[in-house]
């Protein structure tokens, strides 16, 4: 094939890739079509990967193939065995790898000593390198925090000044590489430049509190997209540019939505300490926790008119979604109106509860977002909280000294009766006590969520059997 024809084929394939990416992303916006969306986008990735082999002047085929084989095996193996509850850690790692890959492209570009470098691609290479490196090291810290390998936050006085100076110094070295060395800086200077960006990523993420991790992870997702887009320009590769733009804009939107869900600005997330550990800021909580039997709670729900369920992280830990839906079907059969209320940051990743409930087969029209259902709690006879804690903590509304103050919560406390299913005295992700558990209208049903749901199912079934 003539080189012109090959170029045409490559460009046409990249167009197909772009269409597949956008189509896939569109399908990912609803849980009904999300699985197929991932397959469509994956097909786009496959086309882009295959077409790379046709690039004129391409060499190093054994190395490329070896990288693909190693990457595929690791991704397949880790994707198969990762627990649902560990998915956010995996997303953080994959984000970091994307940022690192963009940084690596920039490193190759900046170390090509015998090439003539043009200014615009150089600027983009340097910017992509900074953003990609921050995303790599920041995501690794986010992974370690989510995985419980790094606990708490790490702060010292003057930290923001140190961070600011380091960031400006890194940018200054980048400017030197572009405008003074014209892309021919020594490897030591290039290494110092990358080192500065990587250390900044660590310093920027270490002080951020646990409950803010979802926002941080989607921010790094946006960073990675941006870095990949810039490096796509450097390589003049349309598939990389498009993939980068799609990931960058989707990540930015997700970041803004997550920050909005927590009622905070993105800069507030990054520069202030939220949800680090609330114990010292907490006032006394009055009242006592009143335990209740699963069977009593189940029977009360069986005779209620309206029940709203607030699921949280503990539902995922217990893998109780199937039993929960079995219980819900019994209630619906008995004429009870049942709705699920989903807090945007319930669980440990965006959409976590939606995924769990979809897996159990819960129909989408039973599932409501916070803003659509919050006014209905006051009409509910029973609100049942299953493995949720921070997302139903009324301190977020009233207690200005609480680290979760300002985050919108599900108004479960406004129901006539609240049941909270949890194993014991465990706190939520942000580590603060929950005054809801001590409220007059609240009772705790202690136990693993799956065991409690089985007991509730039995209670309702034995009631039906008895009639
Ligand atoms: P949560 O505040 O983390 O509380 C979970 C509760 O579940 C705990 O109090 C725990 O109490 C209980 N639990 C754990 N295992 C259980 C089991 N097997 N059976 C029954 N209960 C169990 O959960 P949430 O209300 O869903 O809030 C999510 C938190 O995670 C927020 O602070 C959010 O900011 C943060 N976060 C969210 C994301 C995201 O993207 N969605 C990502 C990272 C962090 P016991 O130990 O007493 O059972």
For the largest beta sheet, what order do the strands appear in spatially? 3-2-1-4-5-6
Ligands and ions found = NADP nicotinamide-adenine-dinucleotide phosphate
Q: Based on DSSP secondary structure assignment, what is the total number of beta strands?
A: 6
User: What's the overall geometry?
Assistant: globular
CA(first)-CA(last) distance: 80 Å
Order of helices and strands: HHHHHHHHHHHEHHEHEHEHEEH
- Uncertain runs: 274-281
- What is the typical, i.e. mean, pLDDT? 90
Binned, the helix content reads 55-70%
List the topology elements.
Layout: H1 3-28, H2 34-52, H3 61-81, H4 87-110, H5 119-146, H6 159-180, H7 187-205, H8 213-235, H9 238-261, H10 266-271, H11 294-302, E1 306-311, H12 313-318, H13 321-333, E2 337-342, H14 352-360, E3 367-369, H15 370-373, E4 382-386, H16 395-398, E5 417-422, E6 442-446, H17 449-466
Parallel strand pairs: 1-2, 1-4, 2-3, 4-5, 5-6
NADP nicotinamide-adenine-dinucleotide phosphate binds near residues 317, 391 and 449.
Description:
The protein has 467 residues and is an alpha/beta fold. The chain is 59% helix and 7% strand. The chain has helices at 3-28, 34-52, 61-81, 87-110, 119-146, 159-180, 187-205, 213-235, 238-261, 266-271, 294-302, 313-318, 321-333, 352-360, 370-373, 395-398, 449-466; strands at residues 306-311, 337-342, 367-369, 382-386, 417-422, 442-446. A six-stranded parallel beta sheet has the order 3-2-1-4-5-6. β4, α16 (395-398) and β5 (417-422) form a beta-alpha-beta unit. Mean pLDDT is 90; it is low at 274-281. The structure holds NADP nicotinamide-adenine-dinucleotide phosphate. The site of NADP nicotinamide-adenine-dinucleotide phosphate has 33 residues, from α8, α12 and β5.
């Amino acid at each position: 094939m003539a080189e012109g024809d090959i170029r045409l084929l490559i460009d046409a394939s990249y167009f197909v890739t772009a269409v597949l990416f956008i189509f896939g992303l569109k399908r990912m916006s609803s849980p009904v079509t999300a699985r197929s969306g991932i397959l469509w986008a994956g097909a786009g990735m496959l086309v882009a990967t295959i077409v790379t082999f046709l690039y004129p002047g391409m060499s190093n085929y054994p190395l490329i193939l070896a990288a693909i084989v190693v990457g595929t095996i690791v991704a397949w193996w880790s994707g198969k065995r990762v627990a649902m509850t560990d998915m956010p850690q995996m997303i953080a790692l994959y984000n970091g790898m994307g940022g690192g890959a963009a940084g690596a492209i920039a490193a190759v570009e900046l170390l090509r000593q015998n090439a003539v470098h043009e200014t615009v691609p150089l600027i983009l290479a340097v910017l992509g390198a900074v953003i990609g490196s921050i995303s790599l090291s920041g995501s690794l810290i986010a992974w370690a925090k989510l995985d419980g390998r790094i606990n708490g936050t790490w702060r010292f006085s003057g930290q923001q000044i140190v961070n600011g100076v380091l960031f400006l110094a890194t940018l200054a070295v980048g400017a030197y590489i572009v405008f003074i060395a014209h892309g021919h800086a020594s490897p030591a200077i290039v290494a110092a430049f990358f080192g500065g960006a990587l250390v900044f990523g660590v310093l920027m993420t270490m002080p951020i509190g646990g409950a803010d991790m979802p926002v941080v992870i989607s921010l790094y997702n946006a960073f990675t997209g941006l870095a990949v887009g810039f490096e796509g320009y450097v390589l003049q590769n349309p598939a990389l540019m498009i993939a980068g733009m799609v990931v960058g804009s989707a990540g930015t939107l997700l970041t803004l939505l997550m920050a909005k869900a927590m009622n905070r600005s993105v800069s507030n997330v990054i520069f202030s300490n939220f949800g680090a550990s609330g114990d010292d800021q907490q006032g006394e909580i009055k009242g006592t926790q009143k335990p209740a039997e699963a069977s009593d709670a189940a029977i009360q729900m069986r005779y209620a008119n309206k029940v709203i369920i607030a699921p949280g992280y503990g539902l995922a830990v217990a893998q109780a979604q199937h039993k929960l839906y079995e219980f819900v079907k019994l209630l619906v059969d008995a004429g009870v109106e049942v709705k699920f209320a989903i807090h945007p940051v319930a669980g440990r990743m965006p959409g976590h509860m939606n995924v769990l409930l979809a897996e159990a087969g819960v129909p989408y029209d039973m599932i409501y977002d916070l803003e659509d259902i919050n006014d209905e709690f006051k009409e509910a006879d029973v609100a049942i909280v299953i493995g949720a804690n921070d997302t139903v903590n009324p301190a977020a509304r009233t207690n200005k000294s609480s680290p979760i103050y300002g985050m919108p919560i599900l108004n479960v406390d406004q129901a006539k009766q609240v049941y909270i299913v949890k194993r014991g005295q465990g706190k939520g992700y942000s580590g603060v006590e929950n005054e809801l558990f001590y409220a007059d209208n609240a009772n705790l049903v202690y136990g693993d969520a799956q065991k409690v749901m089985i007991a509730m199912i039995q209670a309702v079934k034995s009631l039906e059997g008895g009639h």
